[in-house]
Amino acid sequence: MTAVESAMRKRSRGAALTALAAAQFTVMLATSIVNVALPQIRDGVGLSDGGTTWVVNAYGLAFGALLLAGGRAADLLGRRRVLFAGLALFGAASAAAGLATSPAVLIGARAVQGTGAAVVAPAALALVMDLYPPGPGRGRALGIWGAVSGAGGAAGVVLGGVLNQAWGWPWIFHAVAVGTYLVLGASAVLVPQTAAAEAARFDLPGTAAIGLALTGLVWGLTTARSAGWTDGPVLGAFLLAAVLGAAFVLIERGSSHPLVPPRLFAGGRVTAGNVLMGLFGSVWIALFFFLPLYQQQVLGAGPLVTGLGQLPLAAANMLGATLAPRIARRIGATATVIGALLTEAAGMLWLSRIGVHGSFVTDVLGPSVLVGLGLSVAFVQLTALSIEGVAKDDSGVAGGLVNTTRQVGGAIGLAVLTTVAGTVTSAAHRPRLEALTEGYRTAFVISAAVLVATALLASLLTRPNTKAGKAPCAPSTNPLPSSSGSRP
């Protein structure tokens, strides 16, 4: 291959990565873009207070429950084709949400939007893995992936505040629809065709079992925040999730074409990555829930100011994700993961010092930057660990699995933290703003403790597998190098 051909190939891959990263950004954007506009959405379509939460929950429920199915479909049907179908569905549902005039239509559209996201996210990540084989190039690509993933969540709050204040809440969804179809057009031009895996039967029983199990679990967790943990339907949902989860394991053991092939977990690194990602995700989603609440309910900021307040966090997130591969090559991935988790924990502890009479500059700005840096570096390295050594034919389901663990971990973490924060607020017997602040502080302290525990677990689970004092593979072919950084 000549130097000119090599340069052209590199530019082509870079353009395709840009389109795929834009798809991931759009999915993450839709997760948080409604957060600062919920009161206006509630009034606009006549939602009850309980119904308002389902504007968020319907998206997250469908997204978390169908990620595994979306990833496997990408492996079997062709990742490019499945990506386009997911983007088309996502864009149509976004437009429908913006046109909704009734609660049922809006919540239904958000559920369909989540379904499209569950198809897009694993297909896009699998295509990135196809474009970049293991090595430094994949590390840099995952750095970009991590940057847009974290920035998408923060940008959703910013864009939601700007659009809501300028043109009203429907434009939150219309803007996502327009952006989605622009991404679809760019992907059609820039993303190359990839072959589907060898013909295999889609595991419909396993898909149904795990989809319904995750639906029951996430529904129970989100409902428990308002109805209580001992509510009959909540307990029934948890029981259903447990039974169907057990059924899924039995189905997979007897299936010749399982939804989640056991070979994914043969090396142990995928298992470690997903366990750590689940714990990490439990803090991630809660951060974008409590921080805007503190800014609006305690500091009195409006939607626009609250949204703009996420910009430093988003900038730190993008910087950290870009630097993550370089840091891992210099000090090793294990040290990078542990350092990133502890950095984020330090930021959470700093946030636990927020005050009733505080301000954005004194109480939010500094810890937001620290959290953003740690969050992004940890996300990039844990994603790399979760797909390390995965065969090309399984890259879609591996991407779906790591997204599922993060999403389900987030649902569990948010349910637990909101319950604890609410309990602390109710028991505070102080003026309202002081009681709210005390609840938020507690949530941030617990988040920091979870991150420290995750760092300790990472020190055990991400140690390089060694035999006769040698690592199994060289860092140059491993997206998550050994902690020593030395060659075997």
UniProtKB/TrEMBL annotation:
Residues 16-466 form the Major facilitator superfamily (MFS) profile domain. The chain crosses the membrane at residues 54-70, 82-105, 111-132, 144-163, 169-190, 202-222, 234-251, 272-294, 300-319, 331-352, 364-387, 408-428, 440-461. SUPFAM superfamilies: MFS general substrate transporter. Pfam families: MFS_1. Signal peptide: none annotated. It is found in: Cell membrane. The keyword Iron-sulfur does not apply. InterPro entries: MFS, MFS_dom, MFS_trans_sf, Sugar_transporter_CS, Tet-R_TetA/multi-R_MdtG-like. Residues 466-488 are annotated as: Disordered. It comes from the Bacteria. Residues 475-488 have a biased composition (Polar residues). Keywords: Antibiotic resistance, Cell membrane, Membrane, Transmembrane, Transmembrane helix, Transport. It is a multi-pass membrane protein. Belongs to the major facilitator superfamily. TCR/Tet family. This is MFS transporter. It comes from Streptomyces rameus. The lineage of its organism: Bacteria, Bacillati, Actinomycetota, Actinomycetes, Kitasatosporales.
